[in-house]
Design a protein that fits this description.
Residues 151-194 form the Zinc finger CGNR domain. InterPro entries: ABATE (IPR010852), ABATE_dom_sf (IPR023286), Znf_CGNR (IPR021005). Pfam families: ABATE, zf-CGNR. It comes from Streptomyces mirabilis. The chain is mostly helical. Helix content is 45%, strand content 8%. It has a two-stranded antiparallel sheet with strand order 1-2. A hairpin with an 8-residue loop joins strand 3 and strand 4 (163-165). Helix 2 (18-25) runs antiparallel to helix 3, helix 2 packs across helix 5 and helix 4 (73-91) runs parallel beside helix 5 (128-145). The N and C termini lie far apart (57 Å).
Amino acid sequence: MSWTATARYGLEPAPGGLAFVQDLLNTLSAGKPRESDLLQTAEGARAWLDQALKSWSGVSHRPAPGIELTAEDVQGLRDFRHDLGQSLHAQLGDSATEVGPAASLMTLPTALRLDEHGAVHAEPRGTGWRQVASLALIEVYQAQCTDTLRRLKACRNTRCLVAFYDRSRNNSGVWDDVHVCGNAANLRNYRARKRAGADQV
Protein backbone atom coordinates (compact mmCIF):
# COMPACT_ATOMS: atom_id res chain seq x y z
CA MET A 1 0.00 0.00 0.00
CA SER A 2 1.18 3.52 -0.75
CA TRP A 3 0.59 5.97 2.07
CA THR A 4 2.01 9.04 0.36
CA ALA A 5 1.95 11.46 3.31
CA THR A 6 3.69 9.03 5.66
CA ALA A 7 6.13 7.69 3.04
CA ARG A 8 7.58 11.15 2.36
CA TYR A 9 8.92 11.18 5.92
CA GLY A 10 10.54 7.76 5.46
CA LEU A 11 8.24 6.13 8.02
CA GLU A 12 6.60 2.72 8.14
CA PRO A 13 2.81 2.90 8.15
CA ALA A 14 0.79 1.84 11.17
CA PRO A 15 -0.95 -1.53 10.82
CA GLY A 16 -4.32 -1.86 9.14
CA GLY A 17 -6.70 1.05 8.90
CA LEU A 18 -4.82 3.02 11.55
CA ALA A 19 -2.42 3.87 8.72
CA PHE A 20 -5.20 6.06 7.28
CA VAL A 21 -5.24 8.10 10.48
CA GLN A 22 -1.44 8.33 10.50
CA ASP A 23 -1.40 9.41 6.86
CA LEU A 24 -4.01 12.10 7.49
CA LEU A 25 -1.90 13.47 10.35
CA ASN A 26 1.20 13.37 8.15
CA THR A 27 -0.37 15.60 5.49
CA LEU A 28 0.79 18.39 7.80
CA SER A 29 3.82 20.46 6.87
CA ALA A 30 6.37 18.84 9.17
CA GLY A 31 9.73 17.12 9.24
CA LYS A 32 13.21 18.46 8.77
CA PRO A 33 13.45 19.90 6.17
CA ARG A 34 9.81 20.93 6.07
CA GLU A 35 7.58 19.14 3.59
CA SER A 36 4.59 20.94 2.10
CA ASP A 37 1.07 20.77 3.55
CA LEU A 38 -0.83 18.30 1.36
CA LEU A 39 -4.13 19.87 2.44
CA GLN A 40 -3.11 23.40 1.50
CA THR A 41 -5.24 23.40 -1.66
CA ALA A 42 -8.39 21.58 -2.76
CA GLU A 43 -6.45 19.93 -5.59
CA GLY A 44 -3.75 18.69 -3.21
CA ALA A 45 -6.32 17.46 -0.69
CA ARG A 46 -8.21 15.53 -3.38
CA ALA A 47 -5.02 13.94 -4.69
CA TRP A 48 -4.00 12.85 -1.18
CA LEU A 49 -7.49 11.54 -0.36
CA ASP A 50 -7.80 9.52 -3.58
CA GLN A 51 -4.55 7.69 -2.86
CA ALA A 52 -5.26 7.28 0.86
CA LEU A 53 -8.69 5.76 0.17
CA LYS A 54 -7.17 3.27 -2.30
CA SER A 55 -4.62 2.25 0.32
CA TRP A 56 -7.31 2.05 3.01
CA SER A 57 -9.41 -0.19 0.77
CA GLY A 58 -6.39 -2.46 0.28
CA VAL A 59 -5.74 -2.96 4.01
CA SER A 60 -9.40 -3.10 5.07
CA HIS A 61 -10.50 -5.33 2.16
CA ARG A 62 -13.55 -3.16 1.70
CA PRO A 63 -14.51 -0.83 -1.12
CA ALA A 64 -13.39 2.74 -0.58
CA PRO A 65 -16.22 5.20 0.09
CA GLY A 66 -16.78 7.75 -2.63
CA ILE A 67 -15.93 11.06 -0.99
CA GLU A 68 -16.13 14.35 -2.86
CA LEU A 69 -14.11 17.22 -1.42
CA THR A 70 -15.12 20.75 -2.36
CA ALA A 71 -12.90 23.79 -1.94
CA GLU A 72 -15.02 24.65 1.12
CA ASP A 73 -14.24 21.26 2.69
CA VAL A 74 -10.49 21.83 2.81
CA GLN A 75 -10.49 24.17 5.81
CA GLY A 76 -12.79 21.80 7.71
CA LEU A 77 -10.44 18.91 6.97
CA ARG A 78 -7.42 20.93 8.14
CA ASP A 79 -9.28 21.87 11.34
CA PHE A 80 -10.16 18.23 11.95
CA ARG A 81 -6.53 17.19 11.37
CA HIS A 82 -5.44 19.78 13.95
CA ASP A 83 -7.98 18.55 16.51
CA LEU A 84 -6.99 14.93 15.87
CA GLY A 85 -3.33 15.80 16.39
CA GLN A 86 -4.16 17.61 19.61
CA SER A 87 -6.09 14.61 20.89
CA LEU A 88 -3.06 12.43 20.09
CA HIS A 89 -0.92 14.63 22.34
CA ALA A 90 -3.59 14.52 25.03
CA GLN A 91 -3.85 10.72 25.07
CA LEU A 92 -0.08 10.55 25.47
CA GLY A 93 -0.24 12.94 28.41
CA ASP A 94 2.09 15.34 26.62
CA SER A 95 2.24 18.30 28.96
CA ALA A 96 4.38 20.22 26.48
CA THR A 97 1.36 20.66 24.23
CA GLU A 98 -1.63 22.68 25.34
CA VAL A 99 -4.77 20.87 24.29
CA GLY A 100 -8.01 22.78 23.94
CA PRO A 101 -11.53 21.59 23.15
CA ALA A 102 -11.91 19.89 19.80
CA ALA A 103 -15.29 21.03 18.54
CA SER A 104 -15.16 19.15 15.24
CA LEU A 105 -14.58 15.85 17.04
CA MET A 106 -17.72 15.95 19.13
CA THR A 107 -20.35 14.42 16.84
CA LEU A 108 -19.79 12.79 13.46
CA PRO A 109 -22.21 10.41 11.71
CA THR A 110 -21.44 6.71 11.43
CA ALA A 111 -23.58 3.72 10.42
CA LEU A 112 -23.33 0.10 11.54
CA ARG A 113 -23.94 -2.56 8.89
CA LEU A 114 -24.40 -6.29 9.32
CA ASP A 115 -22.91 -8.17 6.36
CA GLU A 116 -23.92 -11.55 4.90
CA HIS A 117 -21.34 -13.33 7.10
CA GLY A 118 -22.78 -11.90 10.30
CA ALA A 119 -19.94 -9.38 10.82
CA VAL A 120 -20.75 -5.82 11.87
CA HIS A 121 -18.94 -3.02 10.06
CA ALA A 122 -18.87 0.67 10.93
CA GLU A 123 -19.24 2.86 7.86
CA PRO A 124 -18.55 6.58 7.54
CA ARG A 125 -21.43 8.91 6.85
CA GLY A 126 -21.79 12.58 6.06
CA THR A 127 -20.28 14.39 3.11
CA GLY A 128 -16.98 16.03 2.30
CA TRP A 129 -14.54 16.50 5.16
CA ARG A 130 -17.07 15.10 7.67
CA GLN A 131 -17.06 11.77 5.84
CA VAL A 132 -13.25 11.69 5.90
CA ALA A 133 -13.35 12.53 9.62
CA SER A 134 -15.96 9.84 10.25
CA LEU A 135 -13.74 7.23 8.57
CA ALA A 136 -10.71 8.39 10.58
CA LEU A 137 -12.61 8.21 13.87
CA ILE A 138 -13.88 4.72 13.07
CA GLU A 139 -10.26 3.64 12.68
CA VAL A 140 -9.28 5.45 15.88
CA TYR A 141 -12.06 3.65 17.75
CA GLN A 142 -11.06 0.25 16.36
CA ALA A 143 -7.43 0.93 17.32
CA GLN A 144 -8.59 1.77 20.86
CA CYS A 145 -10.44 -1.56 21.01
CA THR A 146 -7.30 -3.47 19.97
CA ASP A 147 -5.03 -1.33 22.20
CA THR A 148 -2.89 -0.19 19.26
CA LEU A 149 -3.86 3.49 19.29
CA ARG A 150 -1.40 4.22 22.12
CA ARG A 151 1.41 3.33 19.71
CA LEU A 152 0.46 6.08 17.25
CA LYS A 153 2.46 9.07 18.43
CA ALA A 154 3.60 12.51 17.35
CA CYS A 155 7.36 13.04 17.35
CA ARG A 156 8.29 14.92 20.51
CA ASN A 157 10.69 17.12 18.54
CA THR A 158 8.55 20.25 18.12
CA ARG A 159 10.42 21.05 14.90
CA CYS A 160 9.24 17.76 13.44
CA LEU A 161 5.89 16.54 14.87
CA VAL A 162 5.35 13.77 12.31
CA ALA A 163 3.03 10.91 13.32
CA PHE A 164 4.82 7.59 13.74
CA TYR A 165 3.86 4.13 14.91
CA ASP A 166 5.97 3.04 17.86
CA ARG A 167 7.06 -0.56 17.32
CA SER A 168 9.36 -0.70 20.35
CA ARG A 169 8.66 -3.61 22.67
CA ASN A 170 7.76 -1.44 25.66
CA ASN A 171 6.13 1.38 23.64
CA SER A 172 8.71 3.87 24.89
CA GLY A 173 9.53 5.70 21.64
CA VAL A 174 9.15 9.47 21.59
CA TRP A 175 10.91 10.38 18.31
CA ASP A 176 10.11 9.22 14.80
CA ASP A 177 13.86 8.92 14.16
CA VAL A 178 16.10 8.57 17.20
CA HIS A 179 19.20 9.35 15.13
CA VAL A 180 17.83 12.65 13.80
CA CYS A 181 15.21 14.04 16.16
CA GLY A 182 16.51 12.14 19.20
CA ASN A 183 20.09 13.29 18.76
CA ALA A 184 18.99 16.88 18.15
CA ALA A 185 16.90 16.88 21.34
CA ASN A 186 19.68 15.28 23.38
CA LEU A 187 22.17 17.85 22.08
CA ARG A 188 19.85 20.74 23.02
CA ASN A 189 19.36 19.27 26.50
CA TYR A 190 23.11 18.79 26.92
CA ARG A 191 23.82 22.42 25.94
CA ALA A 192 21.08 23.65 28.29
CA ARG A 193 22.60 21.68 31.19
CA LYS A 194 26.06 23.11 30.39
CA ARG A 195 24.71 26.65 30.34
CA ALA A 196 22.86 26.07 33.63
CA GLY A 197 26.04 24.67 35.20
CA ALA A 198 28.09 27.65 33.96
CA ASP A 199 25.53 30.07 35.41
CA GLN A 200 25.87 28.45 38.84
CA VAL A 201 29.67 28.85 38.91
